[in-house]
Design a protein that fits this description.
It is a single chain. The chain has about 400 residues and is mainly beta. The chain has one domain (about 1-405): YVTN repeat-like/Quinoprotein amine dehydrogenase (Methylamine Dehydrogenase, Chain H, 7 Propeller). It has two helices and 32 strands. Strands 4, 5, 6, 7 and 8 form a five-stranded antiparallel sheet that branches. Strands 17, 18, 19, 20 and 21 form a five-stranded antiparallel sheet that branches. A hairpin with an 8-residue loop joins strand 1 (about 20-30) and strand 2. This is Lactonase, 7-bladed beta-propeller-domain-containing protein.
Length: about 400
């Protein structure tokens, strides 16, 4: 198992002693070449959040996603600033961070990617591969990061089987738009929800060469716009869940493995993001992120542009109340279906991305519209989000927030 072998690797290098501080890395998009994007580091220690680093011009204008590999950070620049000007922008930036997260440095030059990269995942033997989904570039790429300072492109796979749907949204659905790359629990497959095509694209991976081929597609309803997904292993079963951006729904499948590969079959359910029978949402509301808890017992999704909740300003309660979008929290049942458990505040507007800590006790949200990052406490036993521990104004379009737990050692 992939995760077990990773843990074994840590032990093999000697047990680190963990400091009590938790580090969170975030991305903020800027406006243009003279007002580029930045990365921030937030430290959570002794119940306090502190912005300890903010670094400009290290990942272009539109940093969208970070992948950690030891002290290296691979940062995608979505570069829709260039795209808006008619150029085909998009880059992979290699960075190194100090262990305390206070100093990031660029390693080498940015590598050009397919336009508009938005998500990446490590895969392959020893996780030496990096797969990237390009929202603007009709495809995915893979890189070899076995020399961490010098990623090499292995493959560029553009999608050629695309037919726009009737009444397709001109902004989002007139081309293939892979929005996420998700590694399955065996490491043999990558699933890319394609928001433009209303499909999950499933790639069969060669763990050694880091090449992959499209093995099959799984349809989602017309105009649904699948955005982000995750696998959950429940008992001996495997399930896959996706949040759709345009229809703001959750879809679940039972995944089976056979000699032929993996099979999603017909979906188990399609429900609104707030659960079956929930009230209609504002037409502006869009599904954003989907995360499974580390114990595979809970599924959390964010829905954005609802402005449905009012909470004390998490950056400073003295500043009064602010609007918030929700995180919707489900208990995963033994048969893979979902039971609504809680609707909780994300901490602000447009929770485009959020992550959960490895021990399940914390959730961090990137609130794009507010330029805010909020930290939420989570009860690992009940799965409930219990309290917003605090928030930091990092500014810009805040697009990503993740715990950097592997450098969190003394
Ligand atoms: C870049 O963006 C900033 C902030 O929005 C703006 O003030 C500035 O005029 C822009 N510069 C150019 C060259 O467009
Ligand atoms: C950050 O690290 C680089 C490379 O080691 C070094 O040159 C630079 O002075 C450091 N910057 C700060 C602010 O410590
Ligand atoms: C992406 O696909 C669309 C529709 O097939 C096509 O019009 C467009 O030129 C392609 N863009 C890129 C960057 O390949
Ligand atoms: C979890 O949250 C829900 C919704 O607020 C609440 O009804 C339930 O009692 C909570 N569970 C526990 C164990 O606190």
């Amino acid at each position: 198992m992939l995760y077990k072998s990773l843990a074994a690797g840590v032990i093999a290098f000697g047990l680190p002693t963990f400091a009590s501080a938790t580090l969170i890395f975030t991305t903020s998009m800027g406006a243009n070449a003279t007002d580029p994007g930045w990365l921030s580091t937030i430290k959570y220690a002794d119940g306090k959040l502190e912005l300890i680093n903010k670094q400009l011009s290290i990942c272009g204008v539109n940093p969208s996603w970070l992948e950690f590999a030891g002290d290296h950070i691979y940062c995608l620049d979505e570069d829709w600033y260039s795209a808006a000007a008619g150029a085909a922008g998009g880059a992979l930036n290699t960075l190194k961070t100090t262990r305390d997260g206070t100093n990031l440095t660029s390693v080498g030059q940015p590598l050009k990617t397919l336009p508009g990269p938005v998500s990446s995942v490590r895969f392959g033997q020893s996780l030496k591969g990096l797969a990237i989904a390009s929202y603007g570039g009709n495809g995915t790429q893979s890189y070899d990061i076995s020399s961490p300072d010098a990623p090499k492109v292995v493959q560029e796979l553009t999608i050629d089987n695309f037919t726009p749907k009737k009444d397709a949204d001109p902004q989002q659905q007139l081309q293939p738009r892979p929005h996420h790359v998700v590694l399955d629990p065996t490491g043999d497959f990558i699933v890319a929800p394609d928001l433009g095509s209303d499909l999950l694209r499933i790639f069969k991976v060669d763990k050694n060469t880091l090449k992959y081929v499209e093995a099959k597609t799984v349809p989602t309803p017309d105009l649904s716009g699948p955005r982000h997904g995750a696998f959950a292993k429940v008992g001996s079963e495997t399930y896959f869940y996706v949040i759709t951006e345009r229809s703001n729904e959750i879809i679940g499948w039972k995944v089976t493995y056979n000699s032929d590969g993996l099979d999603f079959g017909k979906e188990l359910f399609i429900i609104p993001s707030h659960g079956p029978g929930s009230a209609a949402l504002p037409t502006t509301a869009r599904g954003a992120e989907l995360v499974i808890s580390p114990d595979s017992k809970f599924l959390l999704v964010s829905s954005r542009f609802e402005n449905s909740l009012r909470i004390p300003n998490p950056e400073d309660k003295e500043l009064g109340k602010v609007q918030s979008d929700p995180i919707i929290n489900y208990a995963i049942q033994a048969d893979g279906t979902l039971k609504l458990q809680q609707i909780s505040a994300a901490g602000g507007i447009n929770p485009r991305h959020f992550s959960i800590s490895k021990d399940g006790s914390l959730v961090v949200t990137a609130l794009q519209k507010d330029g805010r990052v909020a930290l939420i406490k989570r009860d690992v036993q009940t799965g409930n989000l219990t309290e917003i521990a605090g928030a930091v104004h990092v500014g810009g379009d805040t697009t990503f927030a993740r715990f950097k737990e592997d450098t969190n050692c003394a």
